[in-house]
Amino acid sequence: MLTNRLALTLFTLTTIAMAAPPALLASGNDDDTRCSNRTLRGDFAFHIEGAFVDAPMPLLIRGVAMTRFDGRGRLSQVDHVVFNGMLPPVDWTPATGTYHINADCTGEAEIIIPGSPFSPVTLRLVVGADGRRIETVVSKPGYDVTSTAVKVDSSR
Fold first, then answer.
1. What is the DSSP string of 76-138?
2. Do 56 and 16 belong together in one domain?
3. Contact 99, 107 (CB under 8 A)
4. Residue 39: which residues within 8 A CB-CB, separation 6 or more?
5. Domain count, the chain
6. Cα angle: 97, vertex 98, 99; to 5 degrees
7. Could you say which DSSP state residue 39 is in?
8. Of the four, 13, 24, 50, 131, which is 20 to 30 A from 154 by CA?
9. Residue 64 neighbours by CB under 8 Å, 6+ apart
10. Reduced to 3 states, what is the DSSP secondary structure of residue 9?
11. Residue 131 falls within a domain, yes or no?
């Protein structure tokens, strides 16, 4: 009988924990773990690397970008991306786009590069370090590309 009661108690506690919103299960202050579009505001310097694999032979990709997030779901950027050692047709390629950040600090972005055969670029991302760091992966068939960004200190 004690075993049944213990099993029922464990089952009840497990059910409650599974049904509880993730914010209730997090340790620490809720404000420390909650994200939204407002979490990304300002300029971020990106380092990009990977490969375009939807070709007879993979094309290596290396680049940098400066992206400005407006805190409301819109972004603008310039990038310099080298494909297999070939310089881009425009030194600093401009782009615009949108992004959405979920409460758990995951999100997505879409970048539109006018005139580019690679546009749009669809990203999945994770925001960390209180909105000061971003990790991304291109979420589009044929790409194996990741990037890391840090917020640019505008106080200088």
1. EEEEEEEETTBPPSSSSEEEEEEEEE-TTSEEEEEEE-TT-TTPSEEEEEEEEGGGTEEEEEE
2. no
3. yes
4. 101, 105, 127, 131
5. 2
6. 135
7. G
8. 50
9. 45, 46, 47, 48, 79, 80
10. helix
11. yes
Q: Which residues of 104-116 are buried (b: 16+ CB within 10 A; e: fewer)?
A: ebebebbbebeeb
Dist CA 136 CA 145 (whole Å): 8
Contacts of 151 (CB under 8 A, 6+ apart): 42, 43, 44, 131, 132, 133
Question: What count of other Cβ atoms lies within 10 Å of the Cβ of residue 127?
Answer: 23
**What confidence category does residue 55 fall into, taking pLDDT thresholds of 50, 70 and 90?**
confident
Residue pLDDT, tens place only, 39-54? 999 999 999 999 999 9
CB 64 within 8 A of CB 48: yes
114 to each of 1, 40, 106, 152, how far by Cα in Å? 71, 24, 27, 25
This prediction has a pTM of: 0.77
